[in-house]
Q: What sequence folds into this?
C-alpha cells in the first residue's frame, strides 16, 4: 500500500524540494507560534499552504477525502460516520436546493461533495491551497457534481465575495487554522445574508486541560506542530468570539460527548475493530507506511523528506489519541449561529 503513496509523491511537481519544504514549514510555524498574535496573523496563510502541500497526499492515502473526525455509534463504519457527520451539519443549517453556501477551508472537497449531494444546494469551496483545489475540481468532475460545486482560491479570512453573498456558511475543522476566531467568524458574518446561518465543527481544548500539567502542555504542543495549529482555543473563547462579531448562537455543544453507546472519535487512529480499508490510519498502519517510505526514500523511489512528513503527521496522530483519551481536547465543538435580520 505505501508503494502507491510513494508513486503519488514522486509524480508531484517539484517533489525534489519536499525536504526543504518540511524545514521551511517547521521554521515558519515556530516563528509564528512564538511571535504572538500579529506574527500568527501574517504567517497563517503561508504555514497552512506549506503544511497542506506536504500533508494532502498522506491524508488522502490514510484517511480519505474528508479530513475530519466524527462521532460514531456501534455498528457504524468509519466512512458512514464521516458522511453522517457531514449530512448532520447540512440538516442543522437547513440547506436545500436554490441556496448558495460557502465552505470555508474546503480541503479537497470531500465534505462539500457529500453535502451538495445530500441537500442539493450550490456550494462554493474556499481554500488557499491551489494544490488541494486541483484535487477538489477533479473529484467534482468525477462525481458529476460540477453544477452544484465551485471553488475559490483565496484566504478564508479575506474571501473575494461581496457582503451578504451567501445563504449559509459552514466550516469543518478548518477554522482551527485561523490565528484568532473573531477573524474567521467575522468574515463568515460579513458573507452571510441577514438571517443566514453559520455552522462550525471547531477544535477546542476542554475544561479538563490543565496548563500547569507538563503532559497536557506537551500533548497540546504536539497537536499544534503536527497539525499546523498556531492556536487551539478553549470553548469559552470560541463562544466569546461568536458573541463579539454579532452572531446569535442557537446551539453550542461538544459532539465528542455523546449520550448512549458510542465509539471514541480518535478510535480510527488506534485501530481496534477497523476494516482492512481503514488499516492505514491505525498506529500499526502508520508504522508500516513510515518505515516502508524510509526504505523507498533510501533507494530514491520516494522523494527525500517523505519520512519527515510522515513523522510529523504521526506526531499529531499520537497527540490526538492522547488528548482524546484524557478528554482534554475535542475536534468537534459544534456551534450553530444565526446572523440577525
A:
Amino acid at each position: 500500500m505505501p508503494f502507491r503513496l510513494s508513486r503519488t509523491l514522486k509524480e508531484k511537481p517539484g517533489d525534489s524540494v519536499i525536504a526543504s519544504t518540511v524545514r521551511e514549514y517547521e521554521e515558519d510555524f515556530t516563528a509564528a507560534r512564538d511571535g504572538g498574535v500579529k506574527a500568527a496573523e501574517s504567517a497563517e496563510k503561508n504555514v497552512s499552504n506549506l503544511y497542506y502541500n506536504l500533508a494532502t497526499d498522506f491524508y488522502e492515502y490514510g484517511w480519505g477525502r474528508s479530513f475530519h473526525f466524527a462521532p460514531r455509534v456501534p455498528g457504524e463504519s468509519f466512512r458512514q460516520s464521516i458522511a453522517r457527520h457531514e449530512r448532520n451539519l447540512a440538516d442543522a443549517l437547513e440547506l436545500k436546493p436554490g441556496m448558495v453556501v460557502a465552505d470555508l477551508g474546503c480541503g479537497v472537497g470531500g465534505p462539500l461533495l457529500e453535502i451538495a449531494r445530500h441537500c442539493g444546494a450550490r456550494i462554493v469551496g474556499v481554500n488557499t491551497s491551489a494544490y488541494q483545489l486541483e484535487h477538489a475540481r477533479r473529484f467534482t468532475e468525477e462525481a458529476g457534481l460540477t453544477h452544484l460545486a465551485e471553488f475559490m482560491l483565496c484566504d478564508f479570512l479575506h474571501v473575494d465575495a461581496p457582503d451578504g453573498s451567501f445563504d449559509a456558511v459552514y466550516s469543518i475543522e478548518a477554522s482551527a487554522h485561523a490565528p484568532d476566531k473573531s477573524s474567521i467568524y467575522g468574515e463568515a458574518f460579513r458573507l452571510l445574508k441577514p438571517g443566514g446561518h453559520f455552522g462550525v465543527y471547531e477544535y477546542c481544548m476542554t475544561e479538563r486541560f490543565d496548563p500547569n500539567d507538563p503532559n497536557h502542555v506537551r500533548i497540546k504542543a504536539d497537536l499544534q506542530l503536527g497539525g499546523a495549529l498556531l492556536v487551539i482555543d478553549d470553548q469559552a473563547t470560541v463562544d466569546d468570539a461568536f458573541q463579539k462579531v454579532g452572531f446569535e448562537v442557537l446551539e453550542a455543544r461538544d459532539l465528542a460527548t455523546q449520550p448512549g453507546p458510542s465509539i471514541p472519535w480518535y478510535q480510527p487512529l488506534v485501530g481496534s475493530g477497523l476494516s482492512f480499508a481503514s488499516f492505514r490510519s491505525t498506529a500499526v498502519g502508520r508504522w508500516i507506511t513510515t518505515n516502508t517510505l524510509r526504505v523507498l526514500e533510501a533507494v530514491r523511489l520516494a522523494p527525500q523528506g517523505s519520512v519527515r512528513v510522515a513523522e510529523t503527521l504521526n506526531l499529531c496522530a499520537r497527540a490526538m489519541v492522547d488528548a482524546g483519551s484524557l478528554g482534554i481536547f475535542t475536534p468537534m465543538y459544534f456551534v450553530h449561529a444565526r446572523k440577525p435580520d
